[in-house]
GNAT family protein (Streptomyces iconiensis), 212 residues
Amino acid sequence: MEARIWPLYRLRITTPRLELRLPDLNLAGELAEVAAAGVHDEARMPFTVPWTDVSPEERGRGTFQHVLGTIANWRPQEWTLSLAVLCLGQVVGRQDLSATDFAVTQEAETGSWLGLAHHGHGLGTEMRAAVLHLAFEGLGARSVTSAAMTDNPASLRVSEKLGYRADGLTVTSVQGTYRTLQRLRLDRADWAAHRTVPVDIHSLEPCRSFFG
């Protein structure tokens, strides 16, 4: 039923270890449990919006609401594709791809998190590579942007391996603290030059109109 009404539920992006797909209610619940268990070292906030700075129960509930909200608020002119990341059938994190007026700008933005128990295995690079393949190969993007705190070397390393270039700094306030954010940009040529992860996209055609 869900896939007939909302074809994005059929969309799959696969790599040697991972499957990325829009979570149904059951998967959204599993994703919430992964978020509740923790996604980063509590000593340092890696996000500009400190959504993790709540109780585990609230963190899980917020994750569940976020996924439902992206579907409720979806428009071809402004969308966020919030995908559950599964490794060998187990939910390990979330990978987002979002855009505004993509049909005009052909530019999208990535964001993600990985359950703390799954850090250090190269999954962050592989799941970002998957969604970049969707953006460039599947949707014809010209560029994709991202950002990370300058004191978040793990995220910056992922971007560097995938070919992103520095695109300036932004100063922001997070929890009343001065933080510096590194903007990053990846164009089609750099993406193609840094491709190392095999990626396949499944059931994209019925979804194209959703992306504008």
About this structure: The mean pLDDT is 94. The first helix runs from residue 2 to 5. Strands lie at 12-14, 18-21, 78-87, 90-100, 107-114, 143-149, 165-174, 177-187, 200-202.
